[in-house]
Amino acid sequence: HFLEVGLEVVVSGVPNLYKKGNFSLIVKSVNPVGAGAIKKALEALKKKLEAKGYFDLSRKKSLPRFVKKIGLVTSESGEAINDFLKNVGHRGFNINFFDVFVEGSQAENSVVRALKWLNLNLSNLDVIVLIRGGGSAESLQAFNSEKIAEAVFMSRIPVITGVGHEGDETIVDFVSDERCSTPTAVALLINRLMDNLEKELAEKSFDLSLSFEKNLEIKNRKIQKNGFSLFTVLQKVFERWFRVESSFSRAAVFIEKKIQIQTIKLKNINQNFVRAAAEKINEDSHSLSKNELSLTPLNPQAVLGRGYSLVKGPQGFI
């Protein structure tokens, strides 16, 4: 879309030379040369991708509040990785590094392959960080690639970019979910997310502690109130119990005295009965003895004993 007459470009492709001397070139890529040509190509690609919705804010993925697992895509031999690791610090991040080419003919496919592999094999990453250090417009050309832009757009994992120096502008910056000016700025952003989270946790912890103390105070007042009410109720119950107990004790003492009096009365009655029975027995015995003495002379045996006889006839006593 950016080709025009007089434009200087670098063409990559597969050449063919035939026996008759004919020459053909199967073009694989065309890259502009020079700042002006690169700018024109960049503007043309921006319009194309903007029309496809690649830059829409509505489709950009939000960064997670808590970043723990990071997919780092850059060259292991560049300064970008050192700047990033030095500034991200030692906060326990789990960094999965994917070494790629960041310039040259292999950079485009190398970065696309890394983004696709991370999405396929490490889908639990919190973010993917795509970075490279500064350089000339020509050296940053890989990051103006439509293929890389599409890979960033299709990534299910949020992508943070930090390409070049302050002021550098590439296509992937417009497509990414979060753009930073440098690799160092990416590290500082991730640390800022952690700082915000730690601050929020501290605030939540303070609010929770304050709320807990407030609720504890409310509960304590309620317990004291209920305790006082319970004490009042129990006091009334105990007072009633003491009154009942006193009444019962008085009744028990009265009954015990009654029992003692009745026991004494019963004992006296028993003694009187025994004495009366003994006197009656003695009296009856004396009367019986007296009657026996009176009846003894009338006893036929006694009469016979005095010389009298009893005559029997054939028919028995006469």
Give a verbal description of the structure.
This protein has 318 residues and is of the alpha/beta class. The protein has helices at 35-51, 79-88, 107-121, 146-154, 171-175, 183-295, 300-305, and strands at 9-17, 23-32, 69-74, 94-99, 127-132, 159-163, 178-180, 312-313, 316-317. The strands form three sheets. It has a five-stranded parallel beta sheet with strand order 4-3-5-6-7, with helices on both faces. A two-stranded antiparallel ribbon has the order 1-2. α4 links the parallel β5 (127-132) and β6 (159-163). α2 packs parallel to α6 (183-295) and α3 runs parallel beside α4 (146-154). The longest helix has 113 residues, at 183-295. The chain starts with 8 loop residues before the first strand and ends with a strand.
Side-by-side strand order of the widest sheet: 4-3-5-6-7
User: What structural class results from the helix and strand content?
Assistant: alpha/beta
Specify the number of helices: 7
Q: How many E-type strands?
A: 9
Roughly how much helix do the residues carry, as a percent range? 55-70%
Low-confidence stretches: none
Largest sheet geometry: 5 strands, parallel
Oligomer: single chain
Q: On the 0-100 scale, what is the average pLDDT?
A: 83
> How far apart are the first and last residues' alpha carbons, in Å?
183 Å
Secondary-structure element series = EEHEHEHEHEHEHHEE
Portion in strands: 15-25%
